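Limitations
The C-alpha cells in this dataset are predictions for the assembled complex, not deposited experimental models. Users should treat interface geometry with appropriate caution, especially where small molecules or nucleic acid strands are included. An illustrative entry is reproduced here so readers can see what is and is not provided.
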Amino acid sequence: MNENPLPSIIPDKEWKKIQRMLSKRSLWMIHFCTGCGAMEMPPVMTSRYDMERFGIIPMATPRQADLLLVTGYVATKTLKRIVRVYEQMQDPKYVIAFGSCPINGGIYWDSYNIIKRLDKYIPVDMYIAGCMPRPEAIMDAFLKLMKDIDEGKANGWMRYRKYYDQYRRNQMRIFKRWDE
Amino acid sequence: MIRPVLLIALPLFFAFLSPIIGIWSKKGVRYLIIFATALNATLAGILLLEALQKPVFDIIGGFQPPLGIVLMVGPLGAIIAFIINLVAFAISIYNLKVEKEPIVRYSMLYLLLVMGSTGMVLTGDLFNLFVFLEVTSIASYGLAAYNKDKKGYLGAMKYVIIGSIGSTFVLLGIALIYSQLRTLNMLDIAARIGTMDPYVKIMAFTSLFLGFGVEAEMFPLNTWVPDAYDGAPHPISAAFASLPAKAGVFALARVIFTMFSFTNFLWFVVVMGLLTVFFGEIVAYTQKDLKRMLAYSSIGQMGMIIMGLGIGTTLAVEGAFYQMIAHALGKALLFIAAGFLIYAARSGKIEDMKGMARNPLIGIPLLIGALSIMGMPPFAGFYGKFFILMGGFSQGYYAIIALFLAASIVEVAYYARFIKIVFERGNESKVIRPDAATYVPLIILAIIIVVIGVYPKPILTVLQHVGTFIAGGA
Amino acid sequence: MDALTLFGIFVLLPLVGALVSYFGKKYAPIIAVIFTGISGIFLYLWYGNFGSYTIDIGVKLNLTFDITTWFFMLMMNTVIFSSLLFSVSSKLKRAGGFATLMLLGFAGANGVLLARDFLSLYLFWELMSWSIYLLVLRTSGEYARRYLLFGVLSAYLLIMGIGIIYYYTGSFLYADALSGAIPHAIWPWILTFLILGFGIKMAIVPFHVWAPYAYSSEQPFVAFLSGGLSKLGAFGIFMSMYSIAGISLLQSFGTFRGVSLMGYPFALLGAATAFIGTILAIFQDDIRKLLAYSSIGQLGYVMIGLGLGTPLAIGGAMFHAFNHAFFKSLLFLGAGAVIYRTGKYKISEMGGLGYRMPFTFMFVLFAIFALAGIPLTSGFISKWMLYEAAISRKFVIVAPLMLIASVGAYLYSYRILYGVFLGQLKDEDKNVKEAPGPMLAAMFILMVPLVIFSIVPGWILGWINKILVENGIGKLNYTTFSYSSAIGGANMAVFWIAFILLLIFAMLMFMAKKARVVDQYDNYLAGEAPPSVALHAAHNYYKPLRDTWAPLLKHSIDRAYEKFSKFFAGGFYEIKRIYTGNPQDYAAYLGIAFLAFLLVGWWLLW
Amino acid sequence: MVTDWLIHAGLVALYLFLAMVIGLLFMGIARKITARIQNRVGPPIYQNFLDLGKLLAKKTNIKHNWIFDFAPLFGLGGVLLILAYLPMGGYIMLSGQGDLILLLYILAIPALGFALGSGASGNPNAGVGVMRALTLMLSYEMPFLIVILSLMIFYNTASLSVLLQKQMNYLWGIAALPISALAADIALQGMMAEKPFDIPIAPHEIASGPLVEFGGKYLGLLMLYSAGSIVVETSLFVDLFLGGGIVLNPTVYGTLAYFVNYLVWLALIFVVWMIAIFVNAVFPRFRIEQAFKFYWKWPTVIAIAGLVQAYVMSVFLGVVP
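Predicted assembly:
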C-alpha cells in the first residue's frame, strides 16, 4: 500500500509516518556473507544480543527481505550476485555494509578483483567500520538504521531508483556482461 | 430345377477342356477356371435355393437307391457346396497371379480339386464318397508338390503317406459296413445301422472317423497339414484350407450324424476336437513362418468345428456349420493375403513382413479375415464360435469350454503379433501396391464375411435345417 | 419410436458414419462429429421415452432404452463428441481410419448399453473390444496385443458366466436369469465371472496391466477409451449385480453389516485398485501413463461403490463414473493439446505451458479439482457419497484405503499441474500457442457439467436416484442443492455462496495494489544467473517418496505377467516337438490313434 | 428470515476476524515462547501485526504471472472458508451445512491455491518445497485419516456439529478415544509443519520453499493464511477431541454459554498450540523420507490401535454415544 489506502481518514503525512514506523519495527534481513564476518552474526541472532527483540529476523530470500547485510570484501564476481539480490528486494529496502572492505577495500585495497567502494554500485544506508566489527557494533548499526528510517533519512532505495542509470553504468564497468 | 450332378460334371468337363484350350492360349486357361468356378458357384446357389424347399435327390445312371449311386443334397450340403465353389471362384481369380508352369495341368488339378470337394459334399453314397475323397486327395497331392521345390516335395510326400493311410482306413470302414449291411447308401445304412454287430460298428466308425479325420485335420492326423500348406503355391494353400478340409469335415458330419447316430460316443469327438484346437493353436503360436502359422491356425479352427459337431446339440452343430462357412471364407482370405505378403516381403518369415499390409486394399481385408477367424463380431466367425460355445455350455462341458477358451487366447496372441508386425510403421518405402488379381478376391471374400456377419439371417435360415440333419436327414 | 429407430439411431447410424467417414480423408473427424452429434440430439430428445424392443437379424437382439442406459449413453455420447471435436484439429495421420474405428467403438458401446440379452451384449462387447484394439494399434503397436489379450480374456470370462446361465435357463435374456432355474450355489460363480470380465475393462487390479500402455495412444481416442468405454465395465458390473442378479439375491449370500458377502470382496478389490493405481501414478514421468494409472485408481472407487451396494454407495459409484468420464477425458484432451503443441509427453521435459496456454490450463485445472475431489466441482460429491457409504457401515479397511488414495491423488495432480503448466517455460517452448479452437471447445464441453453439477447436484442425483429406484436398490437423500447420508450431509448452495463471498473479500484485500510483472528468470537463486541451469524441478519429482517405496515397487504385476507368459511360451515350444517332421512318426501316430480309438470305443461298449 | 441470515453472516464475519487476530497473536506468542526457551528476550507478542502491516505497506510488489495471484487469493479465501465451516467455541456457523469430509476437502483449497501460485513462480525451490509439502501431507494424513475414521465410527456421525453435540452429551473424544487423540496430536505436528516436520519451508535448505518468490502484499496475505491455518488446525483438534471447548450447553445458558465456551475454546486451542510450539522449539528437522517413514510407522500403528478400540467399542461392545 504505497498509496494511502484511506486518504479521507489518514492524512498523507501520517500515512508516511505509519509506513516508516512499520518498516523500522519489522526489519527482515538477508545477509550476504561474501567471505568473512559471517561469524559475527550468530551472537547477534542468539541469546547474547538477540536481534529478534527489535523484530529483525534473518530471511532466506530477498523477496521477503527489507535489509541487505553485506559482510566482508566484495569481489567483482560477488558484486554481480549482490546487485542481483539487491534488485530482487522490494522497496523500501536498506543496505548495511559491514566491515572495512566494502567501505574502502580494506586490506584488499590494491587487489585487482576486489571492489573498493560498495557505495558506487548500490546505495548503502549504513556502514559498520572495523575489521572485524563486533556484534555490539552490528546491534548499534541496526538501531541507528532504525532511527534513520524513522527520520526518513535511510532512503538509499530512492537514490537507487533516481540515479539508476549511473549506478548501472558503474556496475557495467565491472561486469562486462550481465547474464552469466 | 437343376441337377446336382451338374456341379460335378461341369468342373470335370472344364478340367479336361483346359488342355485343349491350353494349346492355343495359356492365358485362356486361367480365365476358363474363373468361368468354370463362377458357373459352378452360380449353380450351387440355385441348388441351395431348391434344397431349401426340400432335399434334392439325384439318381445317377437310373439305378434306384440303394443299388445305384445317388446324390443327396440337403440345405446344409448345398450351402457348403455353395461356399466351396464361391471360395474356389475367389481363389481362381488369385490364380491369375500364379506364374509357375505348366499352367494347364495346374488348372486341371485345381478343377479336379473343386470337383472332388463338391462331390464329397453332395454325394449320398458311401463308396462314392470314397471315390471323391480319392479324387480330391490325388489332385491335392499334385498341387501340393506343384512348386517343384524341396519344401513342396516333402510336404506332398507327407501328405501322400498320411492321406493314403487315411484313405485305406476309409476303405476299411466301407468294407466293414458293406460286409455287415450289404449296402453303401447312407440313408440305407442309417436305417439299418442298429442291426450291426456293435464291435464291428465301433470299428467301422473308428475307421471312417479317422479316414475323414485326415482331411478334416483332426489331431493327431493333421501332421501333414503344415508341411503341405507351406510347400504348396499360395492359392493352393488357400484352397486346401477351404475346399478339401471343409469337404472332409462335412463327410465327418455325415458319418457322425447321417450314418451312425451315436449319442454315447460323442463326448469322445468333443475331446478330439479340443485336443485338435489345443495343439493347433499352441503350435501355431510357436511358428515364425506365416503360412505354417496359418496352417496350424487352420487346424485349430477345424478342431473347433469338430468340437461343435461332437457337442451335437442343434445350436452347436449350427455353430459348427457357421464356422465351416466362416473359416472357409476367412482362411482363404488370409492365405491369399499371405501370398501377397510373402511376395511383397520376398520371405515367408513373419518378422520380415514389417509394414507390408499398410496398403488399405490389402490391410482392411486382412484385418477382417483375421478378426473373423478370431471370432470377433460383426464378422462371420463370431456366430459360429459363440454358438459352439453356448452349445457346449448347454451340454455342461464347462471344463472343456474353459480349456478351449484358453487356447483361443493363444490364438488371439499370435494373430495379434502377426497383425502388429504387418501394420507396423517405418517400412513405407518397401510397401508395394497389390494388383487387381490379389485384391479383388480379397475384397470379395471380405465383403461376404462382413455381410453374413452383420446380417446373419440368411445363413441362419439355412442352418435351421440342422435339426433334421442331426436326426439323420439330408 | 420403434425398435428399428432406436437401433438405427444408436447403433446403425454410427456404423454408417464409420463407413462414410472412412472416405472422408481429412474431413473424417468432422463427419464423425456430425454423426455423433445426431445421435446425441436424439438422446436428448428421447429422455423419458423409454421402452424395450427386439431386433431380429437372424438372432434376436433384445434392446432396452431405460434410464440406466440413458445415463451411461449420456456420458458416452458427450465424451466421444468432444473427443472427435478435439481430433478435428489435431491433424491425425489417416484420420479416416481413426474416425471409423472411433465410431465402431461407439456403436459397440451403445450396443452394450442397450443390450438386455447376453448374445447382443457379447456381440457388441467384442465389437467395441477389437475396434479399440485397432485404435491402440495405430500408435502403440507394441502393446496393442496386450490390450487385445486382456480384452479377449474379459470377453471369455463373460462367456463363462453367460454359458453357466445358459446351461440352466436355456435363454440369453437378462430377465430370465432370475426365473429360479439357476441353483443358488451357482450364482457366486456366475457373478464372479461376470464381474471379473467387466472388471478387466475397468482395469481392476490385477487385470490393470493393459491400461498404461493402451492409454499411451492418440489422446482423443484415449479420452474416449478412459472416459467413455471404461464405464462399460461399471455398467456391466452394475447390470450383472443389481439387474441380472438383483439386490435380494445378493443379500441372500449372507451379509456383512448390511453389505452382501458377494459384493464385499469386490469392494476390497476396488480399494486395493484405488490404492495401487494412485501410488503407481505418483511415480510416472510420462503424462499419459500418469493419467492411465490415475484412471485405474479412480475406477477402483467405482468398483468400491458397486461392491458395497448400499444405495448411497451405488449412487456414488454412478456419480463417480459420470465424473470420471468427464474429468478424465478432459485431462487426456488437455494432455493431448499440450502434446499436440509441444510434441513432448514427458512431464519433466515440459513446464510453464500454463502461461502460454491459459485456457487449456484452466480446463485442466478444473479437471484436477474434480479428480482431487475439491468441492468446487462435482468430483467431490461422488467421493463424498462413497466415503459416507463406507463409513456409515463402519468398513475399516475400505474407508482408509479410499481416503489415503484420495490424498495420493493430490500428489500426482500437482505433478501434472506443476510439471506441465507451471514452473519455468523452456526456451524451445517460447513460441507455443494456445490450443486451436475446436480443442478448446471440446474441453469446455467436458468442463461444464463438472461445475454445473457441483452447484446443482440435485439434477444428476435425480437421474441416479431414478436408476436406483428402478432397479429396486433404494433411494438417495437429496434436494436440489444438498444431499445427505445417515451420518452427515452437505449443502452446495451454502458452500458456493460462502466461497464466492470470501473469495471476493480476499480479492478486495488483494486488488488494493498493483504488482509489477517480472520475467521468469528474475528469480531468486542465490544470485545465480538462471538461464545457465535447467530450473524446472520436475524430474523424478517425488524422489524421496520413491526411495521410501522402493522395496515395494520392486514387485511388479507387469513383470509377473511377463514371467507367466514366458513360462507358457516355453511350454508351447516343448509341445511343438510332437510335430517332428518325420512321416514315419506321423504314420505311427495314425496307427496309435486308430488303436486308441478302437479300444476306447470297445471299452465304452463293454 | 433475512435479518436472521444477516445476523448470522455478521456473526460469522466477526468470528472470522477474531480467528485471524488470534492466529496472528498465536504466532507472536510462539515467537516469544521460543525465544524464552532459547534464553532470549524475543519480540513483543504483537510483532506479527507489525510484520503484517509492513508487508502490506511495501512500496513495490512483484508477480510472475496471473497464476501467481492464485496463492494469496485462494490462500486467504480458502482459509476463511475453512474457518467458516469449523465450529469455534460452540458457534457452529456453517458446519451444520457440511460435514467433516467436506471440511477435509475444503482444507485442500487454500493449500492447492498456494501450491499453484508458488509453482507459477518458476523457482525450483518452490517446486521442491511443494513436493515436500505434498509428501508430508501424504505422510501425516495416514494416521490423521484413520483417527478421523475412528471418531466417525465411534460417534457414528460425520458432521462436526453433531460430533460436538455428542461429545457434550457423552464424553470428550480425548477421554473416549485417548489413543486416537495421541495419534492425532502427532499428526497435527506435521499438519502445522512445525519442527521436526517443517520440511516444506526449511529456510536453510530451500530458501523457504514455496514462499521463495512471495514478497510484499503477497507474503502479507499468505501470512494471514498461515495465521488462519493455525486456528484451523488447533481448532480442528479441539473440535474433534476436546468437545470444541463446549462446557455450557448453549440451549440452556444462551448467550453466556457462547461467551464462556469461546473462552474455553480459546484456552484449549492455546494449549494445543503450546504443545506444538514446545515440541517445535527443541527439535531439529527431519528429512522428508524420514518423516514419511516415521508417520507411516508409529503414528499409524497408534492410530490403528485407536481405530481398533473405536471399532471394538462401537461394534462389539455396542457403546452408543
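Some entries come with short summary sentences. For this one: Chain D has one domain: 2-316.
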